[in-house]
Design brief:
By secondary structure, the protein is of the alpha+beta class. It is 39% helix and 9% strand. The chain folds into 2 domains: 1-30 and 241-274, no CATH class; 47-232, Muramoyl-pentapeptide Carboxypeptidase, domain 2. β1 and β2 form a beta hairpin. It is globular. The structure holds zinc ion (ZN).
């Protein structure tokens, strides 16, 4: 074996042997993260987990980042969603199409002012707040991550009713939305928690990992928020630094660079004697 090859090989073996020690040393300085989802998914850096309801109100000047025009089959519009949600919805529609379902976007991002107008229109029409239109600042649609998806028949109707859930399209959506990062935001058995009727059409983007966990366990965003925030508190009560843990998890993996070209121009390390 060429002399310089042998030196490089020894260095490589030494590095590989030492790496696990460094990893263990770094991890043992923090308590164990025991929650089912990785900590950095729950950091909510991108706002995907932002909870909006009657008790968690968005300010009137809240406008989501990266709004993107949605160019999908729709009955009104133009429609906008945050980039991740728009791209995921695109994939969801494609998969729906392949399964034989024609889906329609009915409602997407709504700014505070639009919600405010809808709310006052509803009140002047019915003389009171009948709970159908969310108060400005309390609509999931203001996040830019909420979208109403219907089939053709329902897209052309005036109102939306929970019986949409009985259609083949709604059942396909419920069974598959998590694979694209969406949850059914208002589940039928959770109306007392969400304070909103069953809305089989209202999808909310939270990211795939979280969506799969939530849909498997039939969790509302209210319940999930409580659960993961308790997990963070528990971690911190055991002396953990949550943000530091996220920073470590978000850091790119260390790259071990090997100078693989020696003076003779060989481009690989040979493990056989030459
Ligand atoms: Zn909706």
């Amino acid at each position: 074996m060429h002399h310089s090859h042998r030196i490089k090989l020894c260095l490589l073996i030494a590095l590989l042997a030492l790496t696990p020690l460094f990893v263990i040393a770094e991890q043992s300085s923090q308590p164990e993260w025991t929650y089912v989802l990785p900590a950095n998914v729950l950091e909510n850096k991108n706002g995907n987990l932002t909870l909006v309801n009657q008790d968690a109100v968005l300010p009137s000047d809240f406008v989501p980042n990266n709004l993107l025009r949605v160019r999908l089959r729709s009955v009104s519009g133009p429609h906008e969603l945050r980039k991740e949600a728009a791209e995921a919805l695109d994939e969801l529609f494609k998969a729906g199409e392949q399964a034989g379902y024609e889906l329609y976007v009915k409602s997407s991002y709504r700014n505070y002012q639009t919600q405010s107008t809808m709310y006052s229109n509803r009140i002047s029409k019915y003389g009171k707040d009948d709970g159908v239109v969310a108060k400005p600042g309390t609509s999931d649609h203001q996040t830019g991550l909420g979208v109403d998806v219907l089939n053709k028949e329902w897209a052309n109707r005036d109102g939306m009713k929970p019986t949409f859930g009985q259609t083949a399209e709604a059942q396909w959506i419920e069974a598959n939305c998590a694979d694209f990062g969406f949850i059914i935001r208002y589940l039928p058995e959770k109306q007392e928690i969400t304070k909103i009727i069953y809305e089989p059409w209202h999808l909310r983007y939270v990211g795939r990992e979280v969506a799969q966990y939530m849909m498997e366990n039939r969790l509302t965003l209210e319940e999930f928020t409580e659960e993961y925030q308790a997990a963070i508190k528990d971690y911190e009560s055991r002396g953990g630094d949550f943000l530091e843990l996220c920073r470590q998890l978000n850091a790119p993996p260390p790259v071990i660079e090997l100078d693989e070209t020696d003076e003779e121009g060989d481009s690989e390390v040979s493990f056989f004697g030459s």
